[in-house]
């Protein structure tokens, strides 16, 4: 996967997490949903870590995994392709 | 508190500028039914919500709305970036350009600045949840209106995502209302305001 594909994969999994979070907020006893939530959280953290190791931090605390302060040079999300 | 993730919730890559479209989409940034109103509404209502689960939902949805606010701003920015003053003027953004150049500023498409009159935080949980359900429908309608005018797939794609989220949020707020009503006297929901009366 290239950078764009890796980021989109992180975005997709993050969205799954958020969507399940809202669902569980109103269905706190749904065991199946909670099981699925745990699965996507694990996939999301794995994908996020892989992206961050290769391309830099997505949250500021992840900057600690690199040899120098990389947070300030990460692109802002609205920069786009142009 | 909030932690920021330096990514969009959904990818946006607009290659063709269109300031005329940006003018309309601006309503979802600072307009009466836009994402700024939505986030301020839910994040304000949560403090007096006496049901922890509902207050949690208001916090979580309010947080997602901030991410949507960022997406709308990104769409507007990518539609106007690189345009000349003449191009902005011809597209109908002349007055906006005079006061804001190429910047993002929260206002409705018609020019009304974002303000707290666009939302209520009423302090009565039933009232607030109905306000929230209405807000999601108003936002969905606004996205429907935008989609009738958008011809560019690169713009329509994230807009359709945002529209779908409004429908999902509406569903969640409906469930929250039912959840809240479980703690009330089923013979009289309006006997008193549990968020205020002792």
Give your account of this protein's structure.
The complex is a heterodimer of chains A (82) and B (198). By secondary structure, chain A is mainly alpha-helical. Helix content of chain A is 60%, strand content 0%. Chain A is built from two helices and no strands. In chain A, helix 1 packs antiparallel against helix 2. Chain A is elongated. Chain B is elongated and about 60 Å long. The model of chain B has no long low-confidence stretch (mean pLDDT 97).
Quick summary:
Chain A has 82 residues and is an all-alpha fold. Chain A is built from two helices and no strands. Chain B starts with 18 loop residues before the first helix and ends in a 17-residue tail after the last helix.
Number of strands of chain B: 0
Number of alpha- plus pi-helical segments of chain B: 7
How would a crystallographer describe the biggest sheet of chain A?
Answer: none
Structural class of chain B: mainly alpha
Give the termini distance of chain A in whole angstroms. Answer: 22 Å
Low-confidence stretches of chain A: none
Low-confidence stretches of chain B: none
Order of helices and strands of chain B: HHHHHHH
Radius of gyration of chain A: 15 Å
Number of strands of chain A: 0
Q: Helix and strand succession of chain A?
A: HH
Distance between the termini of chain B: 29 Å
Fraction of residues of chain A in helices? Answer: 55-70%
Kindly provide the radius of gyration of chain B, computed on alpha-carbon positions and rounded to a whole number of angstroms: 19 Å
Give the helix level of chain B as a range of percent: 55-70%
Question: What overall form of chain B do the CA principal axes indicate?
Answer: elongated
Strand residue percentage of chain A: under 5%
Instruction: Please work out how many helical segments of chain A DSSP would assign.
Output: 2
> Main sheet of chain B?
none
- Give me the oligomer status: heterodimer
């Amino acid at each position: 996967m290239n950078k764009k594909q890796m980021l989109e994969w992180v975005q997709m999994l993050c969205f799954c997490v958020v969507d399940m979070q809202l669902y569980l907020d109103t269905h706190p006893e749904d065991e199946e949903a909670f099981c699925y939530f745990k699965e996507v959280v694990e996939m999301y953290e794995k994908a996020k870590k892989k992206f961050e190791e290769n391309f830099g931090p997505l949250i500021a605390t992840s900057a600690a995994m690199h040899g120098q302060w990389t947070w300030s040079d990460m692109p802002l999300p609205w920069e786009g392709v142009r | 508190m909030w932690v920021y993730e330096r990514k969009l919730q959904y990818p946006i890559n607009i290659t063709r500028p269109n300031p005329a479209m940006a003018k309309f989409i601006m309503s979802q940034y600072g307009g009466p039914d836009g994402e700024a109103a939505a986030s301020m509404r839910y994040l304000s209502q949560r403090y007096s919500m006496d049901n922890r689960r509902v207050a949690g939902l208001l916090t979580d949805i309010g947080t997602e709305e901030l991410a949507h606010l960022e997406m709308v701003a990104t769409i507007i920015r990518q539609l106007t970036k690189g345009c000349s003053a003449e191009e902005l003027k011809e597209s109908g953004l002349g007055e906006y350009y005079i006061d804001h150049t190429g910047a993002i500023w929260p206002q409705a498409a018609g020019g009304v600045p974002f303000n707290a009159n666009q939302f209520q935080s009423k302090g009565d949980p039933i009232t607030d949840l109905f306000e929230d359900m209405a807000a999601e429908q108003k936002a969905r309608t606004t996205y429907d209106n935008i989609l009738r005018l958008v011809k560019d797939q690169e713009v329509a794609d994230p807009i359709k995502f945002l529209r779908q989220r409004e429908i999902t949020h509406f569903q969640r707020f409906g469930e929250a209302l039912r959840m809240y009503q479980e703690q009330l006297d089923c013979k009289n929901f309006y006997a008193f305001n549990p968020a205020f009366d002792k």
